[in-house]
Amino acid sequence: MKKEFHAHDSDYTLDFGSGVNNNGCIQFTDHATKKESSIGITIDDQEFNYRVKQEFPSVVADLIDLAVAIHFADRLAFQNLRQDQSRIYVKLAVRHPEIMNTELFRSQLEILLEWATGSLWLFDFPKRSDSERSVVRQPSLPVAAQDCEVAMWSGGLDAFAGLYQRLRSHPEKSFLLFGTGGNVNVHKLQEDTEKKIRYIFPNRCTLYRVPIRFFDSNAVRKNKITRARGVVFAMLGAACASLMGRQELCFYENGTGAINLPYRESALGLDHTRSVHPLTLLKVSDLISGLLGEAFRVWNPFLFSTKSEMCQILAEDVTGRLSSQTKSCDSPHRHNISQCGYCSSCLLRRQALSAAKIEDKTRYLILHGNYSPAKDPSETLRHMLAQVETLRCLLNRPNPHEIQWEALTRKFPILDDIVDQCSVVEKLTTLDMQSKLIRLYQKYVAEWDDVKSQLSVNLIKNRDSESLDRNYSGS
């Protein structure tokens, strides 16, 4: 059941005035400190001129504005996942308040964002009265209508490996890659990795990017960890896909990373992100479909693949250079070597490449840099190995399938929710989807068994190895 609050009870208010514009501002209020700030925002949306649809649908313009508003709210409203839920009130002028103020739409939106961020959200959508942004007024620029697949593009290993695999398996298709966000380093990574893959598959890929950034905002604290990122990116990517005449958007993400089961018993709230979680993609799909007035699907073709399985196709690159061009680190460092090598994303990257028998030529701080972390760098690896051992125990049961599934979902009930809600859109029976998820985690455990000792080097000291081995039967 959706939790509710009133605007006057909010912890933070974000008022976008007469609407989101290319160079606009937010009136941001932190009610705890009673501090009000006027913060500049900019959206470089000129890539949307290149589209199949000649007219720019007003509902798509509202979808873009909503995504941008959520992005800035997620960056500005502090959300402590270990304390009480933050209450965030957003006032955004739109073109279609008759749709967006309905109980159904607002309820779907607020439930989605509570699920994704752990905070409570409240929206008010008055009628937009000012002039449109320039991209809405401008005529479309010529683009060849093709059978293109529109996919989110991060520059990460999953996106790269997933695209490589899709290009190989669908030679008749072209691919439109969509990137967004406000980090200039990420934008450079997106461009560089797209160039690498375009060199191998000429005339098959096009990269679109819509940067969204602050200006005049140095005095305001920003969240380092943003939980609505996947929702925001899906909305903007869906807008791009719709303008290209497509009714679906792809995320390329391995299944274990997308579902992202908690690593440890003490995990609280949203310690683990839900950016590409299958339930997130399902909820976003329903929300976008309701706004556009037609069925729209956001989906992940690799939900039932491990990261190693996704990467196996890159083994044909005998130099090992392709994978090293991508980045995975949760918190990139400001060193010549930017990836730490010991966060969960780096560890899963290293595990996947090793299990796929791909030489990892990535340079990591923990392995190749003169760097001493402030905290124990083995902590995350220990948590990941503990989860692997838990999965092993749950799955180490004789057939029938029902016994394994019951054990797995008693520990991780979210898996039952995924099957119940997603089996229809995945076009699978309940039994088939359960079997695919069981196989996914069995494969994941087996991959860790093969490479665990390699990843422990330089992370877990010799004096700790006996203790670790006692707690990890896959050694």
How many helices in DSSP terms? Answer: 18
Count every beta strand, where a strand is a DSSP E run of 2 or more residues: 10
Distance between the termini: 44 Å
**Integer-rounded radius of gyration:** 23 Å
User: What fraction of residues sit in β-strands?
Assistant: 5-15%
| Global outline | globular
Main pleated-sheet profile? 8 strands, mixed
Structural classification: alpha/beta
Helix content: 40-55%
List the strand order in the largest sheet: 5-4-1-2-3-8-7-6
User: What is the chain-wise order of helices and strands?
Assistant: EEEHEHHEHEHEHEHEHHEHHHHHHHHH
- The stretches of 5 or more residues where confidence is low (pLDDT under 50) are 462-468
The whole-number mean of residue pLDDT values reads 88
Word description of this protein:
The chain is of the alpha/beta class. The protein contains 18 helices and ten strands. The strands form two sheets. Strands 5-4-1-2-3-8-7-6 form an eight-stranded mixed β-sheet, sandwiched between helices. Strands 9-10 form a two-stranded parallel sheet. A hairpin with a 4-residue loop joins strand 2 and strand 3. Helix 7 packs across helix 9 (278-292) and helix 12 (344-355) crosses helix 17. The longest helix is centred in the last third of the chain and has 27 residues, at 430-456. It starts with 11 loop residues before the first strand and ends in a 5-residue tail after the last helix.
